[in-house]
Write a structure and sequence with these properties.
With 390 residues, this protein is α/β, with parallel strands linked by helices. It has 13 helices and 15 strands. It has two domains: 245 residues, 3-Layer(aba) Sandwich (Rossmann fold); 131 residues, Rossmann fold (3-Layer(aba) Sandwich). The strands form three sheets. It has a seven-stranded mixed sheet with strand order 3-2-4-5-7-6-12, sandwiched between helices. A six-stranded mixed sheet has the order 9-11-10-13-14-15, sandwiched between helices. Strands 1-8 form a two-stranded antiparallel sheet. The protein starts with a strand and ends in a 7-residue tail after the last strand.
Length: 390
């Protein structure tokens, strides 16, 4: 049984976390993530959520508290954005290195300077090597669904890795959408209670995170790397289970438009829906164009991506982040490296768009398509929408 409610997406995420029956919320407010943890504080205060709410003094402390609570066996949640994620930086590696299945929402926001509270993917792309499972939502329904699914993925004993759900700041977090909510009994049936593999307990002392001398460090890192790679299959399984249980289907890589398209847009996050409209309109006018949307960013689903772009002559990869000095955005770097040894690989165009919350419209995507056909996009990358007087 489900019910549709129109509300702000941040509040839908908070509802998902409440329904996941978390034990600990470690929270520090930062725009545009604040409404999520504010709503969770209300749930805890009025008794709707039986959890410890820890109002910490910084994002560094939020992740530190999350590490401690999860290591003690508590289902743990936190959320952040931009500079807050950057302040967590050193602890993010500890969370994955200790195999702690913390779940975090990242309300993606541009990094300063100049100060920006608006959306791009610069925050998570700076942290793409932290060893976390990283998932992207396109809309409010996905943000709700994937927030619940993230706990099941992270806590699977074949995984035991922290997981973040990326939600575009303001574009999604503050948007009011109609979201289908699942009955609590159905969430409970889908998401079992957290059963940690190992916990900190004074009655049964263990050591977690000791010094990794050269004789063990490489092996430790190899185990974490292998666990992250192997988690791809678990993510796919959980997505499949979600579809069977709730009739909303998710894949690691999703494709729309012409299945035999010669030109394919590659997108991540909320911009994918605008691209979808452009692809549909271009297809209706007779163009051979498609779209591939990346839902799972880490571990990168190599095989699924290559299958999705098979037959394409050119790719237009949309990045919402700069990787300064490399002449390509982070997603383009990933895909170009992936294609390096592939026979008959497509031509790649990289467009960096939407930085700092700049709007990118259906008309813009049509223009990108037109310029790609005329070979007018930059030889390495094109930063879209820069004013001529800049």
């Amino acid at each position: 049984m489900t019910k549709a409610i129109g509300l702000e997406v941040s509040l839908a995420i908070a509802e998902a976390v409440k329904q996941a029956n978390v034990d600990v919320v470690a929270a520090y407010p930062i725009t545009p993530q604040t409404h999520i943890v504010e709503e969770l504080s209300v749930y805890v205060a009025n008794g709707e959520l039986d959890a410890e709410y820890i109002p910490v003094e910084s994002e560094h402390s939020a992740m530190s508290a999350s590490v401690g609570s999860c290591a003690a066996g508590a289902r743990t949640y936190t959320a952040t954005s931009a500079q807050g994620l950057a302040l967590m930086h050193e602890i993010l590696f500890i969370a994955s290195g200790l195999r702690l299945p913390i779940v975090m929402t990242i309300a993606n926001r541009a990094l300063s300077a100049p100060i920006s509270i608006w959306n791009d993917h610069g925050d998570i792309m700076t942290e793409r090597d932290i060893g976390w499972i990283q998932i992207f939502a396109e809309n409010g329904q996905e943000a709700y669904d994937l927030s619940i699914a993230a706990f099941k993925i992270a806590e699977d004993h074949r995984v035991l890795l922290p997981t973040c759900v990326n939600v575009d700041g303001f574009i999604l977090t503050h948007m009011i959408e109609s979201v289908l909510f699942i009955d609590q009994k159905d969430v409970d049936a889908f998401l079992p209670s957290f059963k940690p593999a190992l916990t900190l307990d004074p009655k049964k002392p263990v050591t977690m995170g000791p010094v990794g001398v050269p004789e063990v460090y490489i092996e430790s890192r190899k185990q974490c790397e292998q666990a992250l790679i192997n988690s791809r299959q678990v993510v796919a399984e959980v997505f499949s289970q979600w579809g069977q249980s709730f009739k909303r289907n998710y894949k690691l890589i999703e494709k729309n438009g012409s299945q035999q398209a010669k030109t394919v847009f590659i997108t991540m996050g909320s911009m994918g829906e605008t691209t979808m409209t452009a692809v549909q309109e271009l297809g209706d006018s007779g163009e051979s164009v498609g779209q591939v949307r990346i839902r799972l960013w880490r571990p990168f689903p190599r095989k699924e991506f290559l299958d999705a772009i098979a037959g394409a002559d050119e790719l237009i990869i949309i990045d919402r982040a700069l990787s300064p000095g490399v002449h390509n955005g982070p997603v383009a770097q990933e895909i170009k490296a992936l294609l390096y040894d592939e026979p008959g690989k497509p031509k790649v165009h990289n467009v960096i768009a939407g930085l700092g919350g700049r709007d990118v419209t259906v008309k813009d995507f049509k223009k990108m398509f037109e310029m790609s056909r005329k070979n007018e996009l930059g030889p390495n990358y094109t930063i879209w929408g820069v004013r001529s007087d800049a």
